[in-house]
Fold this protein.
Amino acid sequence: MRPDILNPLFAGVATLPGVGPKTSKLFDKALSPPHGGEARVCDLLFHLPHSGIDRRARPKLMDAPRDQVVLLEVTVVEHRPPSGRNTKAPYRVLVEDETGDMTLVFFLANHQWVERSLPIGAKRWVSGKLELWDGHLQMVHPDKVLDEAALAKLPPVEPVYGLTEGLTQRAMQKAAEGALGKVPDLPEWIDPPLMAQRKWPTFMAALHAVHRPEGPESLDPQSAVRLRLAYDELLASQVTLGLVRARMKKLGGRPSLGTGKIADKITLALPFSLTNAQAEALVDIRADLASDTRMLRLLQGDVGSGKTLVALLAMATVVEAGRQAAMMAPTEILTRQHYERILPLAEQVGMRIALLTGRDKVAERRKTLAALAAGEIDIVIGTHALFQEAVTFRDLALAVVDEQHRFGVHQRLALGSKGEAVDILVMTATPIPRTLVLTYFGDMDVSMLREKPAGRQPIDTRALPLERLDEVVAGIGRAIDNGARVYWVCPLVDENEDLDLAAATERAELLQQFFGTRVGLVHGQMKGADKDAAMEAFQRGETDILVATTVIEVGVDVPEATVMVIEHAERFGLAQLHQLRGRVGRGKGRSTCLLLYKAPLGEVAEARITIMRETEDGFRIAEEDLRLRGEGEVLGTRQSGTPGFRLASLDVHGALLPVARDDARMIVDKDPELASERGKAVRMLLYLFGRDEAVRLLRAG
Ligand code: ADP
Ligand code: MG
């Protein structure tokens, strides 16, 4: 149960002075709290101003910025009330300073108020949007008309909030004021040395500083005040992930001690040696497998960095221990490819492997399931079909999940529940920036394959406008005459499959006019078997050019392919371009990637293409992608509605994340029940950020 002391913060905004039942609806809309319900006081506190009006800058009329809200010191010169019967005309007041003059304009004015507030000859401070109208400066309905005494009471910087239709800045400011008054004195959850080192204020002082800014500094996202609040939010999320992780570990694992017998044979059979990165990843994975806690590890590596091999050797380790492994891939094509590549090696070393997909014949499937349950199969490679209830293992020790974020977390766990304390290895080919791994996979250990296998040649990446298609076709002709194999990817058109298909079909037809049956086509609407047939024809070299919509699956491996043409490259995201380019440059031949674009290029598209030409480092590309797109989209979380952060923004506060992660680890390691003084304060933090479920884990024990 949430501690009583926090209750005022979790009351609805209608409990604040000046907020009635009607306006509270507007607050629900403007604050759109992550829980989706009614806006509460804490939602208001976490709705930080996006900017501020600095009242301390006192420009003269001549240099005051136009079309902005400004505060000006003026002397009242003349009143011009609407004349005669024309009551619709505005009441105008002429004011001046030593640099010029301006008209204050009041429509439907209360004459008495205007006369009282702006006596002729008096000095006044007026605030409002300064506009140039017909060559003359004017301010329509100043939001403030102040005398000296009133000016002294004005906050130096006025916060400006995101609003919704019908809600005014004034109402939001007043409500925020009221909310500040409800903030209780809370115990400190941040480590005192860290606070001192960073010169961070307390939680309460930080909230006061942002909502009642003393200067523009506290509105700067990098200010100590903002950093403190961002850290609070990051710490809450990292402690939550840490508690989930601790719980998983507590549920326990079973050690799988390999003998090295099978894995060594595989390594010997390979025509190459492991890269250092592969060897290091295996050391970590084997240590995890051998320990009696559960493994939750993310294996990150660019396309072609050799993750599949690492996974195979990890699976060999559990097979040596007399247990079973499962490997799951997101698509039929990828699953088959993994199977076909692993099969010859497995047979050589005596591992029994099976394939399980949604397309198996009934009798065959029954046989596979029986063999799995009896432990007559060591490794099963499959699609989603592996999740089905009918699938049981004799002793599943390790689940490898390829291409993580096509599967949800619950699916990952579903596979994990098919054995007793199954170790989990997730592989992802999309290099995820460190900051995002920590945010979304904070509960996992990470191994990275940054190094590419030796002998890989750089890919020559070029950009050409679509008008030069003729030249490209001629160049492709020369390349295939020299034995090259070419992927030709057609663009996404408005996410519309029919149009995608039309574009790809049309392109295939054009290329067929030149190259006849050497051109194949694969697209998302083909039947599975036809898709496989088209891919296989290309793999075997029966076709030299494969025209494809983006269905050329992440991970499909045709080492002989050396040319990648991407049409309408400007329509693809950076990560996607990188993934597609990764289809080539896998074999011994020199590879080329042609980015065909429609001119003129927009700014972002041009930036993407420049980055593609500059680097092949997937991690750098991922960082750039993050910068160009914003954090949510990289993992496709924006669509699925994973709640984001309110106080922290990863592009600004990303550097705090590792600090929060380490701190969270320390807290959870030292005080797993959050029972110490600091632990109790951290509980408070968790409640504040709506992490009640994390606190519940503590009790589940
Ligand atoms: P990923 O799954 O990371 O995309 P793969 O495991 O599919 O990469 O490997 C890509 C290609 O590189 C495969 O053909 C594989 O046999 C080869 N490969 C893997 N490791 C090495 C290595 N250490 N040296 C040379 N080639 C390697
Ligand atoms: Mg792969």
Remarks:
- Residues 298 and 347 are 28 Å apart (CA to CA).
